[in-house]
Request: fold
Amino acid sequence: MDTFVQQLINGLNIGAIYALIALGYTMVYGILRLINFAHGDIYMVGAFAGYGLAYFIAANLGLAGASWGALLIVLVGAMITAALVGMAIERFAYRPVRKYSRMTTLITAIGVSLLIENLFVARYGGMGRGFPQLLNDRTYQLFGNAAISKSQILIFVVSIALMLLLQWIIYKTRVGTAMRAVSFNLNSSKLMGINTDAIITFTFALGSALAAAAGVLTAQYSPTIDPLMGITTGLKAFVAAVLGGIGNIPGAVLGGLLIGVAETMVVGYGANVGIASTYRDAVAFAILILVLLLRPSGLLGSTVQEKV
Amino acid sequence: MRRTLIALGLIAALLMATGCARRGGNCPDPGGAIKVGVYGDLSGQTSSFGQSTKNGVQMAADEINAAGGINGRQIQLVIEDDQGEPGKAATVVQKLVNQDQVRALLGEVASSNSIAAAPAAQEAKVPMISPSSTNPKVTQVGDYIFRVCFIDPFQGEVMAKFAANTLKAKRAAILFDSNSDYSKGLIQFFKQGFTKLGGEIVAEQAYAQRDRDFTGQLTQIRSANPDVIYVPGYYQEVGVIAKQTKQLGIKAPLLGGDGWDSPQLWDLGGDALNGDYISNHYSVDDPTPVIQDFVKRYKAKFNGTAPDAIAALAYDAMMVLADSIKRAGGTDCQKLRDAIAQTTNFKGITGVISINSDRNAVKPAVVLELENHKFVYKETIQPDTGGGTTSPSPEGSASPAASASPAASAQPSASSSPTANTSGGNANAGATNANQ
Reply:
């Protein structure tokens, strides 16, 4: 029992990371009908920004070692950096080709993804690097053998807080209302006097910031970052968005958690039914195929659902 | 059109001619500077391995050249990056052999890459010395492939012995890298050694390279309640595994192999690594003057970086090669191959190196404890006390071979690989191998 609970905690934990990244996919899709394949790399850029920032504040502000202050600065700093990068990508890569077919934008997205990855490999090397630990990690015993660590609690708390914040932005603010309007119909929104370009840029910034938060949080939990870390994680988050119903915000969160749990259960119990634990990555893609076959609109997605 | 056809035909004829020349084994010494190819992972996931190898070889070559070269001829290194991928390793070795015409090759570290690259060297009859690939299959590719380190049957058994005898462990769990020949080889020999000593393997879990979350596997391992966990992976994943082991509140120490050895390990695992153990080729803290002198020279040359075992082995590999070229009187491929094969009692940094009939080095291993960002020397395990696993005695003189029988049962699969008969005259070498 304690082993099962533990696996559930482990699964929800990586699921929360997938959910944060999936939100970015789903928001951009909701507005532009574009699958932003560079989004996984934004997650990586966020982790690297946090890495640089952690060393910078350790050297210049004397905030070396683990402290909540340092963690907060790194987290927020990485989110801002990634938001700027996301906005730049939208402005210089996607906006110029937006008037062409959707396929053109999709291919541009793949190009941007490869560009970012290879720029980082060229600049930093493909080797993983240790992310500075900004948290005095310790483990809390729950019951039996089941335990939860501070870094896992951090992932849960921060991701839930960010999701609530996102919910508030979308439903309680003017810009959120505008986002929802654009997702319904871009051209009519324009006629209503909404600055659609600004709203699209803002959506990219928001999604990128969430991905960067996921990057920094993961790095506290499994302290290695490398330029290609966004590929698999990004793809799984994309599957999570499709599973939940792409364009649907609660769907992205649900999809992320489900993928995380499914993956961990394969590692934990797959051997009992003849699935080796190394098939964990295949599971996400098997789910993708099943969803596309059985329920292409995803678990929560439907044509009348309000999209962002 | 016809002209193109003629040109193509000419090119094909030319290729065939050179191909035949190579296959004929006709590769006399061209004279002049001696070109040595070095390949390794300089920019990929395990680039610390490639960098250390490059540094070790560079240092040895510079020392040889500064002392007047080999019989007055300078060594010229040609260094290639394979990004740690087996496919690319094979490609860069093709390039080194065919385009750069190197006379000998040094590399790789990861066994999978050496196995992928070795056939190209073997076919072209360019002697290749792997400084630090420990999987037995590497040198089974052919009679031009050597190594200057011990092999996994020995390394796996060293850890099994250490766990059972020194740590008094009864229950061991295994977490291995399912992409790596190195990792799969080690767990096989660890299991045999550990069960032979009365221990029990209570859990076995696998992961894939580039995984960043191991909590699923570790949770299952924890529920089996082991005394030790054997994790013979590479430092990239091991650092994270160590951290997540502690996050799950697991107290059992992790045991590993030489794949953990990288300055980067501490970056990734930090204090979570305290109390773990690895088997390795040498210890940087070993007070022996030869080693301390080497460490001093290396640090002076590379901005204070301490040489890990990979660097020390690379240095030894270059020195063994230089010694062999000197004994062979040049780089005629057949003569050079024979000279490397005849290496006996060469005093290297990582111990006294003798190449046995399987083209493997027979050497002791050390066990190191990880403590506050340092590898602290615990004990040395000699090949003979290692159950005769790497006993230099040729073709299984019955008695020690019998004691090593569990390892033997595993070997036939490896030696029956299609390349095994490349070794031709070394048919009985295969037999010895079965004893290892």
